[in-house]
Automatic annotation (TrEMBL):
InterPro entries: NAD(P)-bd_dom_sf (IPR036291), Sc_DH/Rdtase_CS (IPR020904), SDR_fam (IPR002347). PROSITE patterns: ADH_SHORT. Keywords: NADP, Oxidoreductase. The keyword NADP applies. This is NAD(P)-binding protein. Signal peptide: none annotated. Belongs to the short-chain dehydrogenases/reductases (SDR) family. GO terms for molecular function: oxidoreductase activity, acting on NAD(P)H, oxygen as acceptor; oxidoreductase activity, acting on the CH-OH group of donors, NAD or NADP as acceptor. The lineage of its organism: Eukaryota, Fungi, Dikarya, Ascomycota, Pezizomycotina.
Length: 285
């Protein structure tokens, strides 16, 4: 049901001023949708608006603040007659060098990556349902991360926030299972060249292994057409099959009683590699 990408429909995209969100905004705009991008970065909001010839609405907000969502809802009610066809809850961030003694980093990461999504659902789900009841199609796209599924070591705050995002997205899909005109999707990007991953400066070239954000949103659209909840994106280094085998290996830590994060442990690394390499593609069985 990619029926939401239709001319005149309304798209609301958080974190839409940069990266994956901006690529999605451009796609929606290209389909003739009315686009509102919400972001906390004023500079990027302005350049995004210019990139789309001023033909989109921008809204400065912090997705972690419920008050900002109330104001956004009021503006959607006023400017779009309360209509929402695509709600992309995509804003996300990571704090560099987050460590256990930095509880503030956990709080800010969870506030944006997790509460930003809860706040958005809580505030705008009534408008999404209202739009569907009026005969529209509507989709809610929630941006998670592979790090919330396979949980690699390095940044526990980010990984935990994305694990919570996955849990909430699954519940939303369950709660809306009887809604024939509303679909829910968990977007799980691979390595994507965006503001978040490009720390080498504005003119740095895209690393070969990474995808462009445009590839991610094309893949998203394809999976939405198929009616898939899980949008597990590959990149130029990791295939869909490898992702599926890594996910199964991670689940195997629990069922086989291996230590957690076995894939990265010195005493398990080689066995993990062998196990993942030797596994058939789980999707083929
Ligand atoms: N780039 C990747 O490789 C990758 C991989 C997996 C998941 N993701 C996820 O994709 C989503 C988009 O990230 P991106 O890679 O396009 O990064 P990006 O930094 O280019 O874009 C994220 C946007 O979100 C905005 N934002 C951050 N915190 C906000 C807040 N509290 N309120 C409002 N806006 C806020 C930023 O200003 C920025 O414009 C994120 O949720 C990220 O976690 C990215
Ligand atoms: C806002 O985004 C610009 C790029 O558009 C970046 O240079 C700047 O550091 C960002 N500001 C903040 C506060 O994150
Ligand atoms: C955005 C971010 O901080 N991502 C981190 C999530 O965790 C992995 C491993 O834990 C890190 O490599 C990423 O940098």
């Amino acid at each position: 049901m990619a029926k939401v990408f239709t001319s005149g429909g309304v798209a609301i995209i958080t974190g839409g001023a940069s990266g994956i969100g901006l690529a999605l905004a451009k796609k929606c705009h290209g389909y003739g949708m009315r686009v509102l991008i919400a972001d906390k970065n004023e500079t990027s909001l302005e350049s995004a608006r210019n990139a789309l010839n001023g033909d989109i609405a921008v809204f400065k907000m912090d997705v972690g603040r419920l008050e900002d969502w109330s104001e956004l809802k009021a503006s959607v009610d006023r400017d779009f007659a309360g209509r929402v066809n695509l709600l992309a809850l995509n804003a996300g961030m990571g704090v560099r060098g987050a460590s256990w003694d930095n509880t503030a980093a956990f709080q800010s990461t969870l506030q944006t990556n997790f509460m930003g999504i809860v706040n958005g659902i809580s505030t705008l789900l009534p408008l999404v349902k209202q739009s569907a009841a009026a005969g529209d199609y509507a989709s809610i796209v929630i941006t998670g991360s592979k790090q919330g599924i396979t949980n690699p070591p390095g940044n526990p705050a980010y990984n935990a926030s994305k694990a919570a995002v996955k849990a909430v997205a699954e519940h939303l899909s369950w709660d809306l299972r009887a809604e024939e005109r509303i679909s829910v999707h968990l977007l799980i990007p691979g390595w994507t060249f965006t503001g978040m991953t490009n720390r080498a400066g504005p003119d740095a070239p895209k690393p070969d292994g990474a995808w462009w954000p445009e590839q991610v949103v094309d893949y998203l659209e394809e999976k939405m057409k198929e009616g898939q909840f899980w949008v597990l994106c590959p990149d130029n280094e990791v295939t869909e099959s490898l992702d599926r085998r890594r996910i199964l290996w991670t689940a195997g830590d629990i069922v086989k009683g291996r230590p957690p994060l076995s894939r990265w442990r010195e005493d398990w690394k080689a066995r993990a590699q062998e196990g993942i390499d030797g596994m058939g593609d789980p999707a083929q069985k």
